[in-house]
UniProtKB/TrEMBL annotation, chains A, B:
Homodimer. It comes from Aciduricibacillus chroicocephali. The gene is purR. Coiled coil: none annotated. Residues 2-71 form the Bacterial purine repressor N-terminal domain. This is Pur operon repressor. Keywords: DNA-binding, Transcription, Transcription regulation.
């Protein structure tokens, strides 16, 4: 096989399998090429991945050596995406009664969701995350996008007990509007002592996140990171969570004047 | 830029943007290469994509001509994935009380979900789908995977009214266990007359799918395809939906003998 053909196949392989460790002999035999040819291929791919801002190839030396693709957005690119989201969200037609914001179209676009996933995954890549956790429903696509780029599974906390998942652990918690709510996680869905990353779409006072943290304590999980797409700025006084990463901060939702301000979250600070 | 470098960048571009139509001059100017060089690059990529079984590049001739990547699993590869899923699901530890099957680990693995998405997207690629629809919760990751490879948005039908989505259309329907349930879709989430593809994880008698179809009628949507990951075989007599594509058929769940049989669905027939 020619180098040009190998480069296409290898690029596809790495993009499909982030964080997967592959030893060079595997590629040598798959493509019937010498180890040194493969090694040169990897240098070209590494260069171009960096150039395109989508990450890099990490080479591991030694007997069990090999290579893996680390998806990694440069900070500038993440900021660019965040600013793009700010512009999208500032559209006043998004304002709903009660000062809520219509975001379903943005969260319904797989490409945008993938970009957001990449931003979070790049920020959390060094934290040795075992699993991404979210609560049904709106955080689910974001959680999968993050998990794809971290190459880990997703576990979904539910607000209702479903018979189809076996024995579960459940907790009650108080949400923002002082209602008592329930959260449930099937016992076999999460190993004890896992390193977890919590992902959600929106945070007001942080009641939901706090609920998830209590539930995760029951599994002796280590919450290594909390990522929320957007936080409501005006709730800052009453916030019960402080160790989170937000991409966007929604301020001054003026339902009457039909105005809204969306700023960068604490991601960059 | 050298051909080898262009090939890496172009491969990444196509894989990230299925179905996106790009005119050749765009690549010419981005990579500072002649149209004929780019054209040769595309031939190499097209060859290798077919070779790897991940689809092909479609060239459009003429003044507004260009190229787009059509993700397309060859049928054999889809069948391979279906058979792999059968083996995974036949594990008797999956049997839950009531004859249900534990599938959350499989649906929680982004790589597996992506593969399933590719299988459905390949089957439905010619149907001119505008949007993928699912009902919360378990079908969501599958819906996003399908939508990614069809390059269309996802719309999520909910079972509860959320204040955060504005005015909605809701219907009542009767589910398998004869309970009356509600389904809700925000008005602004779906354009009238859209071509839709319904995706769900599991189908017994088909009450949920029927409910979605009635709801979609309110939006004058055309249901072009229905894809379910697994169907329960023993409910076939009472089935109220017949125009669906299933990857797996679950038969003979023997809770006592701890046995279960999972066969290919109607995908291949």
């Amino acid at each position: 096989m020619k180098r040009s053909q190998r480069l296409v196949a290898l690029t596809n392989h790495f993009l499909e399998s982030p964080f997967e460790h592959v030893q060079l002999p595997y590629f040598s035999s798959k493509f019937k090429a010498s180890k040194s040819s493969i090694s040169e291929d990897l240098d070209i791919i590494d260069d171009m991945f960096r150039n395109e801002g989508i990450g890099y190839l990490k080479r591991i030396a030694g007997a069990s050596g090999g290579v893996k693709y680390i998806p990694d957005y440069p900070k500038e690119k993440s900021i660019e995406i965040i600013d793009e989201l700010c512009r999208l969200l500032e559209d006043p037609v998004r304002i709903l009664p009660g000062g809520y914001l219509y975001m379903s179209d943005i969260l319904g676009d797989p490409k945008t969701v993938r970009k957001i996933g990449r931003v979070f995954a790049s920020a959390f890549a060094h934290l040795d995350i075992d699993v991404v956790i979210t609560v049904a429903t709106k955080g689910i696509p974001l959680a999968y996008a993050v998990a794809t780029f971290l190459d880990v599974p997703v576990v979904i906390v539910r607000r209702d007990t479903k018979v189809t998942e076996g024995s579960s652990v459940s907790i009650n918690y108080v949400s923002g509007n002082s209602r008592i709510q329930t959260m449930v996680l099937p016992k076999r869905s999460l190993k004890e002592g896992s390193n977890v990353c919590i992902i959600d779409d929106f945070m007001k006072a942080g009641g939901t996140i706090t609920g998830m943290k209590s539930l995760l304590e029951e599994f002796h999980a280590n919450v290594k990171a909390i990522g929320v797409l957007a936080e409501a700025d005006d709730e800052e006084d009453e916030r019960v969570v402080d160790d989170y990463t937000s991409l966007l901060k929604i301020t001054n939702v003026d339902t009457r004047g039909k105005q809204i301000e969306v700023k960068r979250g604490n991601f960059n600070s």
